[in-house]
Structures are given as structure tokens and as C-alpha cells.
Design a protein that fits this description.
98 residues, alpha+beta, five-stranded mixed β-sheet, 5 helices, globular, DUF2288 domain-containing protein, DUF2288
């Protein structure tokens, strides 16, 4: 495992939407598709792997939250996410409802 990935693993956590709202307000939240590994995406962003990141953006596997998603999450502030901080961004994956 690379040093970056090891470091990022320590930043991986579970978060409620309530905690993520300030990051969303500064346009720093990035939604990662379920099929992708949050740590792989974080590592690519942290190590400036623009080829991978651009591919994921092109395939809409990493996106900014849509207005519909934001509305849904704002109405359920206890919604859970896997979250990974990669300054200045917060990468999130929705957790399935329990």
C-alpha cells in the first residue's frame, strides 16, 4: 500500500449529512460512485493522477452532488456516508439505508 493510501486510510470515516453540509456549501463535496473504491479515488486526487480523475469525471463516476441529491440529503440530515477528506475536498459515498 502506498504511503498516500496509508495516510488516507486514517482519514476515512463515516459521517452524517449534517456534518457534511458546511463542505457542500463551499462546493467541496465530491460524490463517488458505488463501484469505485473511495481510497483509490482519494489516492488519485492526492497524487495528481489527472488521467484517472478525468476518466472518472467523463464517465460521471465522480460528480458534484446534484440539486436533487442535496434536497434529499437536506431532508434527512442523519443520512450516513462513507467520507474521505482529501484537502480541499471531501469525497463521499452514500451508505445504503439500514
Amino acid at each position: 500500500m502506498s504511503d498516500i493510501k496509508t495516510e488516507l486510510t486514517q482519514n476515512l470515516d463515516e459521517a452524517e449529512w449534517e456534518w457534511l453540509i458546511p463542505h457542500a456549501q463551499r462546493d467541496a463535496v465530491i460524490v463517488v460512485a458505488d463501484g469505485l473504491d473511495l481510497l483509490d479515488v482519494g489516492e488519485a486526487i492526492a497524487s495528481d493522477n489527472t488521467a484517472s480523475v478525468q476518466l472518472w469525471i467523463d464517465e460521471q463516476l465522480i460528480t458534484k452532488p446534484s440539486p436533487a441529491q442535496l434536497g434529499e440529503w437536506n431532508s434527512d440530515r442523519t443520512k450516513r456516508f462513507n467520507a474521505l477528506i482529501v484537502e480541499p475536498y471531501v469525497l463521499v459515498q452514500e451508505k445504503p439505508a439500514a
